[in-house]
Design goal:
The chain is an alpha/beta fold. It is built from eight helices and nine strands. Bound molecules: S-adenosylmethionine.
Length: 221
């Protein structure tokens, strides 16, 4: 499960916001740039891998009237979120476990900076799509497998001894998403953060999908 990542992020939590300022963590800026032109008006938003609430802060800026539910297994990280988004519901849990155990549905589900840490990215996508209202949207980032010799050419790498980062080709992510009844609305690849050493920048793919009303019974793989 995610307990090793929860422990790693608990240790990072006290300095997380300070060390991810500015260009050190651009993922939420890219999210905002993709979502803003779509003119969505969600009344409910579920943010998976919410961390300290940086993604939620962007979502609250875009959708001030939406009710936010934030899910993250690191108590230290999510403890910092309510200061940024008062009124948000905060749940300490693994994303897949939380979604599997709820019968609620949301207009918008987000997962930023988290899917490459999930034991099974596709399971999270499948579960998240199942909790979207018809016509709802799923907005995510993931770290795609890329050609070349950087760490991003490895399907799996290990961080701090225990945290596994898993990468999949963009085309495979899209193929699986389509099997869950998701239609791609917009996407881009862009730098999320600079890596230390010779591995270059971390490039993420950012995607917004819409749940097709015609596909509501899609089961997927
Ligand atoms: C890089 S941070 C991103 C946080 C936030 N979305 C942001 O942009 O600042 C990744 C977060 O994913 C969380 N995470 C790791 N494994 C998880 C899991 N299985 N389910 C939900 N969240 C998880 C970590 O605890 C951490 O807070």
């Amino acid at each position: 499960m995610s307990s090793s990542w929860a422990r790693l992020f608990d240790a990072l939590a006290p300095t997380y916001d300070e060390t991810t300022g500015g260009a050190e963590w651009a993922a939420n800026e890219h999210l905002a740039e993709l979502l803003a032109p779509l003119g969505l008006e969600p009344s409910s938003v579920l943010d998976l891998g919410a961390g300290t609430g940086q993604t939620a802060l962007v979502l609250h800026g875009l959708y001030p009237r939406a009710g936010l539910t934030l899910v993250d297994p690191s108590p230290g990280m999510v403890a910092l979120a309510p200061d940024k988004v008062p009124g948000a519901a905060v749940v300490v849990a693994d994303a897949a476990t939380f979604v599997r155990g709820t019968d609620r549905s949301w207009d918008l589900v987000t997962a930023i900076g988290f899917l490459e840490l999930a034991p099974d990215l596709f399971e999270v996508l499948r579960l998240a799509s199942s909790r979207l209202r018809p016509g709802g949207h799923l907005a995510v980032s993931h770290e795609p497998l890329l050609p070349g010799s950087s760490v991003q050419a490895l399907p799996v790498s290990v961080v701090s001894g225990t945290g596994e980062v898993r990468r999949h080709p963009s085309a495979e992510v899209e193929r699986r998403a389509a099997s869950y009844g998701l239609e791609r609305v917009v996407s881009r690849q862009a730098v999320a953060f600079p890596r230390s050493g010779d591995d270059g920048d971390a490039v993420y793919e950012y995607v917004v999908w819409r749940r097709s009303p015609a596909q509501d019974s899609a089961g997927g793989e």
